Amino acid sequence: MLRRLYPLLIQSRTIKHTVDIKWVRPEYIPAYKAERSGDLEAVPPIPETALGQDYALSEEVKDAPEAVKKIFSVGHLGKKEYNTLVKTHYMNKVRRHQYDEHTTETRIARLTGHIRCLQDTMEKDPKNVSAKKFAQELIDKRKKLLKFLRQYDYKKFEWLLEKLNIEYKAHPDTYNKLSRKESLRKLTEMHCDDIKNKKLDDYRTLLESQQGPFLTRKLEDLKFIRSEQIDLQLPITVAEQDIKKVEEQLKEWTIKDEIKQKAKKKKRNILLETE
């Protein structure tokens, strides 16, 4: 039996498929990118002339000349001091009080500032492997804290997402390996569903177009049957309610058909104008 089917199987391989389904491997997005981490904004625009966090509290620096202020500014102190100001900026948005440093909200805000600073670093230097790895670790740590907060205080969780402009992207329950075979199978199923839905829509449109003439003929037949039964003094099987019901159905169909015809005419006019 298998020997008979073997030539047929070999021949079927050379037949060109009529369904044109192409699969393109999706573009790889690194884990530190905002599309995957859920950060909806970049680092805040802190000017280079801003004083460092510790020096901004000194009264002497405030009254010092511009040359001295420039020495203690972020542009002179470097990236580390800038990152500290960014983390403080986000923590001040969610602090409960002045000394709040270790609540869940402030920890998430501190991690968010650090993540966005690392994302800014990776945009300038994509080959920085240590920064990439550290950013991934911080993103995973923030997801765990967000999951904890979502479970125990959902209102505060939503408030925190709005304050820090974050989109929560939890870890998936299952990990499916991306393969061409599985993707083509799903695309084929989607293509078959589209064909089926299109045929059902066409058949529904055909039936709806035939509904008006059918109701008109039905109404005439019911009136004729009732009049004949009355003339021949036979038991009346068609009540006035049945006739009124068909008249209402015909009236509703007429209104719907007019609306459809107007929509088609408007669409046709738009297409003619664009051409």
Layout of helices and strands:
Blueprint: H1 2-12, H2 34-37, H3 59-62, H4 66-71, H5 74-77, H6 79-94, H7 104-124, H8 129-152, H9 154-164, H10 180-231, H11 240-274
Helix pairs in contact: 6-7, 7-8, 8-9, 10-11
Sheet-strand content, in percent, reads under 5%
Number of helical stretches of at least 4 residues: 11
Principal-axes geometry comes out as elongated
Report how far the terminal alpha carbons are from each other: 60 Å
Low-confidence stretches: 9-15
How many runs of DSSP E, i.e. beta strands?
A: 0
Q: What's the quaternary structure here?
A: single chain
In percent, how helical is the residue content?
55-70%
Structural class: mainly alpha
Radius of gyration: 35 Å
Question: Main beta sheet, described?
Answer: none
The secondary-structure element order is HHHHHHHHHHH
Please give a structural write-up.
This protein is an all-alpha fold and 275 residues long. Helices cover 68% and strands 0% of the residues. The protein is built from eleven helices and no strands. It has helices at residues 2-12, 34-37, 59-62, 66-71, 74-77, 79-94, 104-124, 129-152, 154-164, 180-231, 240-274. Helix 8 (129-152) runs antiparallel to helix 9. The relative contact order is 0.07.
What would you say about this model in short?
With 275 residues, the protein is mostly helical. The chain is 68% helix and 0% strand. It has 11 helices and no strands.
Features:
68% helix; 11 helices; mainly alpha; 0% strand; 275 residues
